[in-house]
Amino acid sequence: MDSIRNLPEEQPVLRNYSEELAKIIRSGISPRALKDRLSDYHQRDIAEVLEELTPAERKKLYGILDSDELSGVFEFVDHPYVYIDELNIRKKVDILSCMDPDKAIACLREMPREQREMLIDLMDEGSRRDIAMVDAFDEDEVGSIMTTNYIVIQRGSTIKGAMADLISQAAENDNISTIYVTEKGAYYGAIDLKDLIISRENSSLEDIIATSYPYLYAREQIEDCLERIKDYSEDSIPVLSSDNKLLGVVTSQSIVQVVDEELGDDYAKLGGLTAEEDLNEPTIQSIRKRLPWLLILMVLGMVVSGVVGLFEGIMAQLTIIVSFQSLILDMAGNVGTQSLAVTIRVLMDETLTGRQKLELVCKEGRIGLLNGLILGAASCGVVGLYIMLVKAKTAAFAFGISGCIGVALLLAMAVSSIVGTCVPLLFKKLGVDPAVASGPLITTLNDLTAVVAYYGLAWLLLINTFGFGA
Questions:
Q1: 270: Cβ–Cβ under 8 A, 6 or more apart, which residues?
Q2: Which residues contact 27 (CB under 8 A, 6 or more apart)?
Q3: pTM to 2 decimals?
Q4: What is the DSSP pairing of strand 151-154 with strand 216-217?
Q5: Which H/E stretch holds residue 315?
Q6: Residue 90 burial (CB < 10 Å; 0-12/13-18/19+)?
Q7: CB atoms within 10 A of CB 249
């Protein structure tokens, strides 16, 4: 047994699907054999290899895969229009008709207006109707991310009839894990596929319908119901009109994508950007996203510099304290950013009460105070020894300076924790995205707090009380 434990552990070798697919497509095998080989790979892997292929190789791939298969591949591409534009008109129409309406709309919006209108006109009536319905919703509403790809049966059907409806609709719709039940067009409930499969033919369909299954309204804001959707962990959730008619469903894949975009957007705002950027974004567009916040930060930075200038006399008398200004400012900024990140995450819960928000402020204040106490004491000892040994100052002078630094660090960290919590709460109350608070406002407030605390204490304790200075 010991000899087995002592054997070197071999690292698993992950297959490079993109490389494999590129070799298969570039091989000289027959179209039938190529189609069989491609069927072994996931559509996402095929989508990933598109960028590595030449236009001629992609054209070969387009001829092998049918419209339904290609639509599945393009749904995993960030900008599918780049590749769809390489196809003929008929193929474009077929692929867009096979795509989920929200994905098709995203692709159509990348096209020139004339081409977009022509392609929509050439689609069948059902596809045009679905695209028009989803496109009618704002991009921040639930209806904009729903799909009409789902199975629906009528209340009052039998188990046998429900199975027949499932089989007939499964050819066009592949979201079959949950089957939705309507009554005269209105949403009634949902059936788990497993329950339908194991039910006996003479059982009542009503017994397996979950009438309390969660649902969303199409006009709801995505941000407002995101936590609610995630909490249910269902493969799909029905989307209803204001009069409870079943319009479509929101799939787990759409939820993952929305959460990813939400996190990306918040991360961008935390970095002082107006929106998320990607690798292929033009330079001018990136500048437009970054420049507004940079201008605001520059103006607010001037305000901080002006406040620092008010303490010029103190700096002239105790030049050594300038060396430790960045320590106070950086720690205040770090603590404020930590509190901000926690608060933004907590604010995703729309059911948060006023009492819970107050508890959050108190908790962050306590954490900032205790962390400031620990780090303030540590910095007092380290800075005191540094001034005494390296700068060759007396112990009284060295630890007088370091004591002031320690107290200033304690105050700055405690106040910054509260500011980092209260500002996003205030922004949320005013209906502004709390992530926006991160960039200019929190940074400036924390810097002002740290500067005033540090130089104010230096003036009060070191100069007026102990008489340090020139």
A1: 340, 341, 435, 438, 439
A2: 34
A3: 0.59
A4: unpaired
A5: helix 312-317
A6: exposed
A7: 26
**Helix axis angle, 125-135 to 101-108, nearest 10°:** 80
Q: Are 193 and 176 in contact (CB under 8 A)?
A: yes
pLDDT tens digit at each of 470 positions of the chain: 555 555 555 556 678 888 888 899 888 888 889 889 988 899 999 999 998 899 999 998 998 899 888 998 998 888 888 898 899 999 999 999 988 888 888 888 888 888 888 999 999 998 899 999 988 898 888 898 888 889 999 998 899 898 999 988 887 887 888 999 999 889 999 999 999 989 887 888 899 999 989 899 999 888 778 777 777 777 888 999 999 999 999 887 777 777 666 655 655 555 555 555 454 567 787 677 677 777 877 887 888 888 888 888 888 888 888 889 889 988 988 888 888 878 877 876 767 788 888 999 999 999 999 999 999 999 999 999 998 988 888 888 889 899 999 999 999 999 999 988 888 888 888 777 676 656 567 778 888 888 888 888 888 888 887 777 65
Using N-to-C axis directions, what is the helix angle for 354-389 and 395-429, rounded to 10°?
160
- How is residue 100 written in tokens? 């989920």
Q: In what order do the strands lie in the sheet with 151-154?
A: 151-154, 178-183, 186-192
Q: Which long-range contacts (CB under 8 A, 24 or more apart) does 290-298 make?
A: 293/439, 293/440, 296/439, 296/440, 297/272, 297/439, 297/440, 297/443, 297/444
Give the three-class secondary structure for 247.
strand
Cβ within 8 Å of residue 343, ≥6 positions away: 360, 364, 420, 421, 424, 425, 434
- Residue 190: its H or E element: strand 186-192
Query: What tokens appear for 383 in the block?
Result: 């800075």
- State both tokens at 349: 């819960």
DSSP assigned state of 39: T
User: For residue 267, what are the contacts with CB-CB under 8 A and spacing of at least 6?
Assistant: 276
Query: CA–CA separation, 225 vs 303, rounded Å?
Result: 39
Sequence-ordered alpha helix ranges (H) in 215-311: 222-232, 252-270, 283-309
Q: State the Cα angle at 350 between 345 and 356, rounded to 5°.
A: 75
26 residue type, one letter: R
Tokens 């320590």 sit on residue: 327
